[in-house]
Predict the structure.
Amino acid sequence: MSSAPTRVKRTTLSAIRTVLFYSAFALWTALWSLLIVLCAYPFSIRNRHRIFIRTWAVVAINLCRLICGIRWQVKGREHIPDTACVVISNHQSTWETFFLQTLLSPQTQVVKQELLQIPFFGWALKAINPIAINRKNARRALEQVREQGKVALAKGIWVLIFPEGTRTPSGTLGKFSRGGAGLAKAASVDVLPVAHNAGTCWPNKSWLKHPGTIQVDICPVINTEHLSVAEVNDAAQHSIDQALKKMP
């Protein structure tokens, strides 16, 4: 059991690393977002993600790795299908929003409308045409996810959805909305569930980042052809839940 002075030392070191990371990340995001705003629009939506968004995310997670000591291990890459589908992931931190951009490209995701108002970051995010929803209008949000998601999938663009709707603490799994499952059924595509425990290193309710190794488990694809929306949703939640229970 670690002593109090040792815990204080570790907390202080984590605080220093976290401040350094956020400083480097803010500078990188501001500079790269400005480049995206100025240069991305002549490129196709597919190439905007591959060239600009994926590059930004790769640098972001590696800054976190180098400064905060947060590494990752990925299991199940063989489950990634050859064609774009709906990706459903649990949501514990900001880390997975970076990492999943590096895993699958081109990609769009369902985001809160408010994110598009953030200087630099929000302006750059608009460049990949995210599905920006107003969470206060649930019915319209579901319609947007289906309409815009189907268009993206038809173009071979992966659609990332966090069905919990908000971040949950590590070790827990919130209730899944049916937006992702509904989109998969409407577009006649499969669902790729992804589980992770990013909250162990990047806690939701703390600004401190802790060194460690995040586990990412890409679960087997769920074929939606003979399932109802509810069954697809339940299957995705069950896959992620079981994967989380096997993580340290």
User: Anything to note?
Assistant: The first strand starts at residue 70 and ends at 75.
